[in-house]
Task: structure prediction
Amino acid sequence: MTQSSILNVKEGFVSPKRVQSIISMLTTTSTSYLLLSSLDVARKQLATKGKELISNVIGLAEETRVRINQISGLSCVGREILGTKATYDIDPTKLIITVKDLGINGHEVEMWLRKHYSIEVEMSDLYNILCIVTLGDTQEKMDILLDALTHLGNEHADNIRENKISSVNVPDIPILALSPRDAFYAETEVVPFEESAGRIIAEFIMVYPPGIPILIPGEIITEDNLSYIQENLKSGLPVQGPEDESFQTIRVIKEHRAIK
Result:
């Protein structure tokens, strides 16, 4: 079935009637009762067994997290990361597994798991893979993941002390010279990627997933931005956005000479 969802409206924060009127502008008048019935069954399951089901999922995830941290070269963060400015809370069902001590990057691990164990992770980046534990997962499935990660750790055991992945400096948030709207409607031109530092970008550049932009239209490109993009491309991560998918060129705002 195609995707569908439920919008939860907390009483007292917004008017349910106002929400309904806005939703009616965007949704179809020919609702699929097959999808509605599926949503209602899911709602009933959460209402009657939700706490038990979620508790089981969290317990399964926490046990798996502990066992991952026992595998040499791997680490899986937990609640110990809370209390810093970079964190607000943690979703216990998400297993963020750091692999850089094995001397390989997250994208390489994603491809390896897919090839050797038919395991699909949620996403990967330069240092990590993300696995999500759901209501459909069982201890048997977690054991398969743990067997795969143990195999991975053993295969790269020699790299743990000798060939750690070097740290990548994440660039600062770029300066916004134009609003994205003004950049969208501005006159643009294409310049070589390597020569674009200092120019105002006219397109998005992001690693997707997760889809957090490295650059958005209107921001000033820096050398740090270019180096970070190249590092992601070198690692095989899915960098997306520009018209030129080869990243030989990039679209920027056209510069005009001053009137003398």
The domain at 49-162 is CATH 3.90.1150.10 (Aspartate Aminotransferase, domain 1). The two ends are 64 Å apart (CA to CA). The CA atoms of residues 170 and 228 lie 7 Å apart.
